[in-house]
């Protein structure tokens, strides 16, 4: 896994294919296979990657013609002719081309490529990244907005809000309504007869949106237009559902796994050679970078809250470059006298433990800020590197002197330091031996107030609340292969960019902090978000020790077993070798060579070979079963054993994960670089990976895990008497449920019946359907439905809670946890049943999962002081879902467990007891 996303590029692969096919003359390779689309696709992809500064890239394809839209309107795209015969064999080849560049080729049955692009775009902006969509498809223009732009690769033209307005006559957020009115003959979207784009735009601009227009259609003066709108109102609404892109599609590959990796030249060369692309082979080294591009700063996600505040007046800026001690002392005096200072750091990279401090910026009032360089290249070198003229630059204050003067200010308890994602700046300054306290964090202020209703990147918030577009990182550091680190930026450019960050952070603070009181979110910010920052910062700095030799041995073992599995699979294929990683070759083996039943082809004519297909075939033949084993082991090796070795910090011998504090809907923390929350623990191989996380000599790892915390929260918030009683008496909750729901005495509960009760208990939290429960338990759907109904009959309080919670979400657009956190539920009033149902499930689960997140945060905040008060030196290292991992001296391990259990079990006062299970061992795997 790479850096957290900063710039995500989503390539409309299907659009690329058709553009290439129709734009190039016929071409064939030696065996007669048409390859003109493949050639054009490969050329465009090569150019795009060479010019891109993105750190996360994916190519998205259409999977099949039939999608959920076909159920809404059977005529949708029904009139389209099949793909040209010469194009069909090229569909799988362009996917091979994508993989040759080491990029994910993503598609999903039942959804169009545009829906996946819309979903990834949403995920990216929620993660604080900016998005570039490479396509000229007008249907994607509805996604354009702050932080999301399109690029037409053929015309090399950027499509922003101005270009969308030129095309549709309205802003991007109204494109769907215009398309719903004018329809689209190419996709068979009916629209309203007699209304074209221009008229539709005029109507939407006048009435605001489609629903208002249709409700007031009788007021329209033109008779034909009025009659057509009234008669075809339902068609307009259906058309809107057809053209509106889904942003909640299941993503086959997590956003975090789209990180750019340097493509292997030999793999690309082999692909080009196989297609006969001799001219491209000679351009590979010149066009494709040999290292992944440096991540750019996060900017501009899209959604705004329903009621954005009015913009403050414009402020004249006066940014100063501080290069002498007198000026530095003056700024320190201003900050000290005002008791409030905006604070930001500039560094050479995104890892605060390895990056070098380049400079510090301070802001004391709106528009009044400075930049204090600490590490910058000489002006001559800057000019040479950036391709501009060199200029004389002043000498900067020696770094040691600057830090010595700043140290008292940053630790002054009478001066509030205001940062944006200040955890990063605290880490950077801690590496210099400086503490930053007390502090406020505008990212966390925004997150506490608005949750996941929009992203919380500085640039997005500045646009949203201040109407100000910050200087792009690429404007000062360049992009692509010409990008330089911040220490190479000329001082005048560095001043404007860095001082602006501190200035805008201070301005945001003035707008956001007062909202805490008026919106009753003081407790969430002051007791859950802000006090967690130093705890997480210390965890990240401490990291956890990893046994490099054990990981390497595991990797070798996995590699050996992969070879054995490959040999076994080939033997099961009558000794005929094939590429186990090629879905195309695997499909032929399964459904053509072995003639296994149930094969389905995708839109490209390729056999579907996903995990679900292999699982269905596994009972019928040993080959798909072994293939599943091979895939699982291959992922473990590539994602964990190989990758974790590379992520060990050479200076500490430990892995230092990074926790995102404002990334999830429910308030849970998310881990990255590496993601330690996704290490599988249900398989033997996954557990072996956890055994590679070890304690230092003379110490032990302590794992403390909440037992069934979400079920306990369900019992509490839904006031379920039966479950409360069971938890109060420490009974086996699943056995009790089985007994009460199925009417079987406790001593007659067999493991199979308990397993069914357990599936229902946990499934209810996530709104499990009869279909989902039937699939999980391997029982008929009717039987699963009967189980769920019996559950509701025994525990009617849970159904009452569900209905109450959905109503709350419909009324206010969010639900709240026990501690006041808002969990937003977009789509709760959507007319699309599937989207509405998804939002309803999120509403039901929000107070439960969000409450669990709040409880463990409360425990984490209290733990350091409790351990210190007990005279213990244990350190908190990891938080993984409902589990905390600490490292303690061996002699203190038992005492540490006692304190940790006491703090965690007292983190919330519920109507059922919280229970923590703890273990002590030399490895994480053994302790858990």
UniProtKB/TrEMBL annotation:
Physiological role: In addition to polymerase activity, this DNA polymerase exhibits 3'-5' and 5'-3' exonuclease activity.
Domain DNA-directed DNA polymerase family A palm: 686-892
Family named by the database record: Belongs to the DNA polymerase type-A family.
Enzyme Commission number(s) from the entry: 2.7.7.7
Biological processes per GO annotation: DNA-templated DNA replication; double-strand break repair
Record Pfam families: 5_3_exonuc, 5_3_exonuc_N, DNA_pol_A, DNA_pol_A_exo1
Originating species: Paramagnetospirillum magneticum (strain ATCC 700264 / AMB-1) (Magnetospirillum magneticum)
Domain called 5'-3' exonuclease: residue spans: 6-261
Protein's name according to its UniProt entry: DNA polymerase I
